[in-house]
Amino acid sequence: MELDRSVPVWPQVAADLRRRLDAGEWEPGERFPGTVALAAEYGVTQSTVQKAVVALREEGRLRTVLGAGSYVQH
After folding, report:
1. What does the pLDDT read at residue 74?
2. pLDDT at residue 37 above 80?
3. Long-range contacts, 62-68 (Cβ 8 Å, 24+)
4. DSSP string, 50-68
5. Distances in Å between the alpha carbon of 33 and those of 6, 7, 21, 49, 62?
6. Is 7 in a helix, a strand, or coil?
7. Closest Cα to residue 18, out of 72, 68, 70?
8. Contact 2, 13 (CB under 8 A)
9. At 1, is the pLDDT very low, low, confident or very high (cuts 50, 70, 90)?
10. Which of 5, 49, 50, 73 has its CA 20 to 30 Å from the CA of residue 40?
């Protein structure tokens, strides 16, 4: 995915992750990739990915378990 660096990046990452979730890349209940892996994949910082994950969690798409990671809700 090509990121437009002239605008905030985390909403772009969140939108792409949302698209991938909608496409069924990860099944409900499946562990979502960690911030380190996603940051490397997108070529961004972990804090950028964390902001995207928080947005998805607030939408109810992910559930985060402290110390265990994030899981796909639906």
Report:
1. 73
2. yes
3. 62/32
4. HHHHHHHHHTTSEEEETTT
5. 26, 25, 12, 11, 11
6. coil
7. 72
8. no
9. confident
10. 73
**Tokens 């994030």 identify what position?**
70
State how far Cα 33 lies from the chain centre. 8
Give all strands (DSSP E) within the chain, no chain letters.
62-65, 69-72
Three-state SS for 3? coil
pLDDT digits (tens, 9 = 90+) for 42-58: 999 999 999 999 999 99
The two three-digit tokens of residue 53, written as one number = 């994950």
Percentage of the chain exceeding pLDDT 90: 95
Neighbours of 3 (CB within 10 A): 14
For 13, residues 6+ apart whose C-beta sits below 8 A from its C-beta are 3, 38, 42, 44, 48, 49, 52
